[in-house]
């Protein structure tokens, strides 16, 4: 017995993987997080497929529904937004499914963090500036482990992507400043990346809370912070070794003149 969890991508129905789309179109039963997954994507499923919205269902209800259909011999897919590996709440589903003898296959998807970077034309890792990206969230009702406090993570001064944190911007600003970030650090906030109503706000750490409040951006927002988000970065000369003509690697010998 098997069910497939598919990463739907950030919103644009064309950003699902080829494999994910094929499995969606082959499924007898499609269960999806209707609060986040595009209806246009779900419309690509078979006309005779059973389609179930799960936003109003609790964990056991979802799992029992999946198991009941699998036991009937149905091909079941569970469609998640973005990539299931990051804040996907998939582990708890897999735990209960495995207890009932159901194998889980996961198809990765495009995460909102990378869709947001693409929307603003940013490379999150820039040579001689930052080579690290931290994916995290601000602490709210879901507590953070002691070693993952935002202030401690920010002390690395690399690019930081903040999920599920748009209502906690005052906390973000305070903890970043305590970690030694400057008030003028570039920040980009992307609401519903790749959706038709996508909205992009470029701001600074100091102005983040005010700008998001003014734009009504308090949910479904990806916040990207760090100097890699500087909108004038293209005017500066950051180059990788990969294309440096003096750099030798396995496919090209460097030249000195």
Number of strands: 10
Helix content: 25-40%
**Mean pLDDT score:** 93
Q: Compute the separation of the termini in Å.
A: 63 Å
CA-based shape: globular
Structural class, by secondary structure, is: alpha/beta
**Largest sheet data:** 5 strands, parallel
CATH topology of the largest domain: Methyltransferase, Cobalt-precorrin-4 Transmethylase, Domain 2
Domain count, please report it. 2
Q: How big is the Rg?
A: 21 Å
Portion of residues in beta strands equals: 15-25%
In the predicted model, the low-confidence regions spanning at least 5 consecutive residues are none
GO molecular function: precorrin-4 C11-methyltransferase activity
Pathway: Cofactor biosynthesis; adenosylcobalamin biosynthesis
Protein name: Precorrin-4 C11-methyltransferase
Organism: Fictibacillus macauensis ZFHKF-1
Structure description:
With 257 residues, this protein is α/β, with parallel strands linked by helices. The chain has 2 domains: 2-107, Cobalt-precorrin-4 Transmethylase, domain 1 (3-Layer(aba) Sandwich), CATH 3.40.1010.10; 112-235, Methyltransferase, Cobalt-precorrin-4 Transmethylase, Domain 2 (2-Layer Sandwich), CATH 3.30.950.10. Helix content is 25%, strand content 20%. It has helices spanning 18-26, 39-42, 59-71, 91-99, 112-119, 150-154, 169-178, 208-214; strands at residues 2-7, 29-32, 50-53, 76-80, 103-107, 133-137, 159-163, 186-191, 199-204, 221-225. The strands form 2 sheets. The chain has a 5-stranded parallel sheet with strand order 3-2-4-1-5, with helices on both faces. A 5-stranded mixed sheet has the order 6-7-10-8-9, with helices on both faces. Helix 3 crosses helix 4 (91-99). The longest helix has 13 residues, at 59-71. The chain is globular. It starts with a strand and ends in a 32-residue tail after the last strand. The relative contact order is 0.14.
């Amino acid at each position: 017995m098997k069910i497939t969890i598919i990463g739907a991508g950030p919103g644009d129905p064309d950003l699902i993987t080829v494999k994910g789309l094929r499995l969606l179109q082959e499924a007898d039963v499609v269960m999806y997080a209707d609060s986040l997954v595009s209806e246009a994507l779900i419309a690509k499923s078979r006309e005779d497929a059973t389609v179930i919205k799960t936003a109003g269902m609790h964990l056991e209800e979802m799992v029992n529904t999946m198991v009941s259909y699998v036991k009937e011999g149905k091909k079941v897919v569970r469609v998640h937004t973005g990539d299931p590996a990051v804040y996907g709440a998939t582990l708890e589903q897999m735990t209960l499914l495995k207890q009932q003898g159901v194998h889980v296959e996961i198809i990765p998807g495009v995460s909102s963090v990378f869709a947001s970077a693409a929307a603003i034309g940013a490379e999150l890792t820039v040579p001689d500036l930052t080579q690290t990206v931290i994916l995290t969230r601000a602490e709210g009702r879901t507590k953070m482990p002691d070693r993952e406090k935002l202030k401690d993570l920010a002390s690395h001064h690399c690019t930081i992507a903040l999920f599920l944190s748009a209502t906690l911007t005052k906390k973000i600003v305070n903890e970043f400043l305590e970690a030694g970030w400057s008030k003028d650090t570039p920040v980009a906030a992307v609401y519903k990346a790749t959706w038709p109503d996508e909205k992009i706000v470029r701001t600074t750490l100091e102005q983040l809370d005010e700008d998001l409040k003014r734009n009504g951006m308090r949910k479904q927002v990806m916040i990207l912070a760090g100097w890699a988000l500087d909108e004038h970065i293209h005017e500066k000369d950051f180059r990788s070794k990969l294309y440096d003509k003096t750099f030798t690697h396995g496919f090209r010998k460097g030249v000195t003149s």
